[in-house]
């Protein structure tokens, strides 16, 4: 049984795919295998990709008859001779003549052309908010420190009052003057 709503849509039962039998001449092959569930019968002249690789999955178990297998060269040709049953058809050439990819990548020709691997790991720098972090703001705007200082001076009344007071002149460090002895007042008797 199928899981889900497909049961109501005339798709109640599902059947697993079995082997695919490919034949050239039907000498009673279709009648022999017709009642076995999951088996698909295909004529070599009418090969169907949907039957050979159902669901796009390559690797279905295919059983070829000897006559069907021999007919493949006439149908599709080889890389040396074109197909005799098709008009002007050649097999597509391989994308790679040597498919040993690991050996190709390790070869000296490829290794010379490659640049050296980057050993340095660059980690992401933590982003800091310049409006909250004065050091970061100073990098972006060197005047920010002065501007912030002016703003605090303007708004803080204690600092402003201190700023408006006349400044006292710093006293010069002098030697202490010799003190005169205090005069004695005559005592009245």
From TrEMBL:
Residues 158-189 are annotated as: Disordered. The keyword NAD does not apply. Pfam families: Ribos_L4_asso_C, Ribosomal_L4. GO terms for cellular component: ribonucleoprotein complex; ribosome. Transmembrane segments: none annotated. Residues 88-153 form the Large ribosomal subunit protein uL4 C-terminal domain. Keywords: Ribonucleoprotein, Ribosomal protein. It comes from the Eukaryota. GO terms for molecular function: structural constituent of ribosome. One of its GO terms (biological process) is translation. Residues 162-174 have a biased composition (Basic residues). Residues 175-189 have a biased composition (Low complexity). The keyword Ribosomal protein applies. Belongs to the universal ribosomal protein uL4 family. This is Large ribosomal subunit protein uL4 C-terminal domain-containing protein. It comes from Anguilla anguilla. The lineage of its organism: Eukaryota, Metazoa, Chordata, Craniata, Vertebrata.
């Amino acid at each position: 049984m199928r899981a889900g709503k497909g049961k109501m849509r005339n798709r109640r039962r599902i059947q697993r795919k079995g082997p695919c039998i490919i034949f050239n001449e039907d000498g009673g092959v279709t009648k022999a295998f017709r009642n076995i569930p999951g088996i698909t019968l295909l004529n070599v002249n009418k090969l169907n990709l949907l039957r050979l690789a159902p669901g796009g999955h390559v690797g279905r178990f295919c059983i070829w008859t000897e006559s069907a297998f021999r007919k493949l060269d006439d149908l599709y040709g080889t890389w040396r001779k074109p197909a005799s049953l098709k008009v002007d058809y050649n097999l597509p050439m391989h994308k790679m003549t040597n498919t040993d990819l690991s050996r190709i990548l390790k070869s000296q020709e490829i290794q010379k052309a490659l640049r050296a691997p980057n050993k340095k790991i660059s980690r992401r720098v933590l982003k800091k908010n310049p409006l909250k972090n004065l050091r970061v703001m100073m990098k972006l705007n060197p005047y920010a420190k002065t501007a912030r200082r002016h703003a605090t001076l303007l708004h803080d009344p204690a600092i402003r009052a201190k700023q408006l007071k006349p400044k006292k002149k710093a006293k010069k460090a002098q030697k202490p003057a010799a003190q005169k002895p205090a005069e004695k007042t005559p005592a009245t008797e």
